[in-house]
UniProtKB/TrEMBL annotation:
It comes from Paenibacillus bovis. The chain crosses the membrane at residues 66-93. Keywords: Membrane, Transmembrane, Transmembrane helix. It comes from the Bacteria. The lineage of its organism: Bacteria, Bacillati, Bacillota, Bacilli, Bacillales. This is B box-type domain-containing protein.
């Protein structure tokens, strides 16, 4: 049988298992009243939302909107270049 070692004390053989996070614990780290870790239970750490499964009943992610995310910036760049060209032409005409 393989020995499991305490999650907090790597040199100690575990004698208990946390009922919340399932990690092996030694006598010092085990809380018999809670049947769990004394402190720093991994079940208390919030899960990163990127790694959670999406809720099928919850809000759905937005679809990629080509008009807003591609076409509008291109039109803005063209408009900016047009204004720059007009300003340069106006400056050249004023200088004549």
């Amino acid at each position: 049988m393989a020995n499991f070692y305490c999650k907090n004390h790597k040199e100690r053989i575990a004698t208990h298992q946390c009922s919340r996070c399932s990690k092996p614990l030694c006598e010092e780290c085990y809380n018999p009243q809670m049947d769990a870790c004394q402190v720093n239970c991994d079940a208390d750490i919030p899960v990163n939302p990127r790694f959670q499964r999406p809720n099928p009943d919850g809000p759905q992610p937005r679809k990629f909107n080509w008009f807003l995310q591609v076409i509008v910036p291109i039109l803005a760049a063209i408009g900016g270049l047009t204004l720059l060209l007009l300003a340069m032409c106006g400056a050249m005409l004023m200088g004549m």
